[in-house]
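Subject: Protein record for review, amino acid sequence with backbone structure tokens
Why sent: The fold of this protein is of interest and is recorded here as tokens.
Notation: Tokens come from a learned vocabulary of local backbone shapes, not from coordinates.
Attached in line: The record itself begins immediately under this heading.
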Amino acid sequence: MATQTSDLLAAAAPRTVAVVRGVADDQLHLPTPCHDYSVRDLLNHLFQVVVNFQDLAAKRPVEWSDKPDHLADGWRDRFEVETGRLIAAWSDPASLEGVSPGMGMPQATVGGMALLDLTVHGWDLAAATGQPYAPAPDAVTELHGLVEQLGPTARKMGVFADPTPDPAPDPDPELQSLHRLLARTGRSLTWPATP
């Protein structure tokens, strides 16, 4: 079976997987648009998201305080495998029912958060390592509403920075939509030129 969430994850995941595969070992120390996160830190965070949100789909408890280093041998392949498991976990219609016991919000919102991390952190890693990145357009469209919904709380908790100015108009509507999404999460499109 499939759900709208799993379809959007399936569209977004290969684009982020390609960026993760493109990260060279000698780039792991580089800074990223995520304040205080190196490329290694952000990859480990994204790994944790992809693994923990599988359990959240099944309404099982997760532990965010554990910070394992996922970047052992074969980590690029394992990241792709885990994203496949993430998509499968959210393809069960039951994954979208009710309220998350661990997160205290609707399961559909929790699934959207996994999509948000895959999409936005895909851009973060691409920006940090000089790679191209084109997210799934349908995912970006869906995420605008989620970021509006989560924005005030996410800023209060330090998950999002304050919004940055609206980007200059772009002739490519898909790129314009991505840039607006990134600005709403507090990212500077001129990173790293802008501190």
About this structure: Residues 107-129 form the longest helix (23 residues). The two ends are 45 Å apart (CA to CA). DSSP finds six helices and no strands in the chain. The mean pLDDT is 92.
